[in-house]
Amino acid sequence: MSSHSFNTIYAMWYRQIIRFSRNKSRVIGTIIQPLLWIFFFGIGFSRMLSSESTPTNLPSGVDYLTFLIPGIVMMTIFMASFMSGISIIWDRELGYLKEVLVAPASRKATIFGRTLGDATIAVLQGIVILLLVFPLTPTINLINLPFTLLYGFLMSISFAGIGIIIATKMRSMEGFQLIMNLIMMPLLFLSGVFYPPEVLPEWMRYAVFLNPLTYATDASRNLLLGFGSLPLWVDTIVLLVIASVFLVVAAIMFEKTSEG
Hints:
Helices cover 74% and strands 0% of the residues. It has helices spanning 3-22, 24-48, 64-82, 86-94, 96-102, 107-133, 145-167, 173-189, 202-208, 212-224, 232-256.
């Protein structure tokens, strides 16, 4: 990689970080939403499922709230990275995208930098959520946190790539948000975030294991709680492949995008 391409990647990465840090409402919103899921959904279901007579398909000694928190961390990263494509719509409307496309810089390097910046932001949000809710489940193994974040980073690259792919074909902010909402909810509930995949009907499990969020969630539980539905090496290989594929496809699609 040439020094010019590296500088382009760094500049776009830095721009995404600064842009996010200056948007206070976005910072606050992305932290509050996962906390609401935990306190109103997680704590409520944890108490409902606390009865020994209630089957939960959870390992012995693991309550529902403990099971949920790694999934919520990955959900935070997922939602932040998936919505990152919206910045391309904003840049198009504000005229910045035209400047980027006509600049004497590699478009592939530009989109790599944007994707890495968006993935970094998403992972930082995941760290904040985990540290805020850790007092609720102190049994989580924080020693494996760096490895957990690595899986979150791979997953966020995948979904940031998907968001960019969709955004390059959209001209309307409203249309992009509608498509995102239609895609995000099925992906979220078919990922193992809220319940083990084993409790689903067999035909639904196929959809679960086509979802990148499934593997990041499973890896986080393997690392933080010591159990998962799949071996860790399977999660690793699948996320590496998916992240590579969507990053390359996003770069190709962005290179072909127009200024209009």
